[in-house]
Amino acid sequence: MRVLAMHDAQGNIHHIVVGPPDSPPAVVTAEPGLLVTEVEAPEEIADLDLSDPQSQRQLNEVLQNFRVEAQAEARLVRKASEAGY
Asked: Tens digits of per-residue pLDDT, 65-80?
């Protein structure tokens, strides 16, 4: 699965674009102040059937519980909880 994340400089995801792994790369334009990074799909969504309407719920979890961590390779990491654990 191809995942493009539109995020701010702190890695907070604002939008994602998802496509099949064999699809051509998507062309997206980010809003001012946002970056676009292709990231590896986390296990939770790696095998989603994009034609299934229930997939929307799982994709929303990515927006709420992950952020982009850009190092040598960009990847999604789980956000730390507000309680600190």
From this structure: 888 887 656 778 888 7
